[in-house]
Fold this protein.
Amino acid sequence: MTKEKDIRHQDSICTNESLLKHQSYYNLKYLIVGILFGILFVKAEIISWFRIQEMFRLQSFHMYGVIGSAVLTGMISVWLIKKFKVKTIYGEKIFIAPKTFNKGQIYGGLIFGFGWAITGACPGPLFAQIGTGAFAVVITLLSAVAGTWVYGYVRDKLPH
């Protein structure tokens, strides 16, 4: 059985091993879907600092419902991909590496949660928040980039 760390190298960003080459305009569809996704975030109030604060204060179910439905959708999708051996639209096999638990996930989750609670933003909605004119969120974006860089720099020294 192949483990995640066996296919993910320390210097790699993802495990996409596709050799397909596309024209530059090919990625335009991702930009369009991203914009539509951002609009959906705004309309559903997922990027609202107040909604996020309500969630962390246990005052509203709104965000828990959104997160829970996303987790359920992901679980069903992965189950269907594995059960029916679904391939990409180009016929490539989809491989989902088994994950192992370690205590670093607890620490990382706590740091992520504290940052989310303090800033009212997580990485996905950052760009939608900036797009709505909340330019103070640029500081959060730069901090997220800096934190990612620091993690990459000290990753070899951390217990995984």
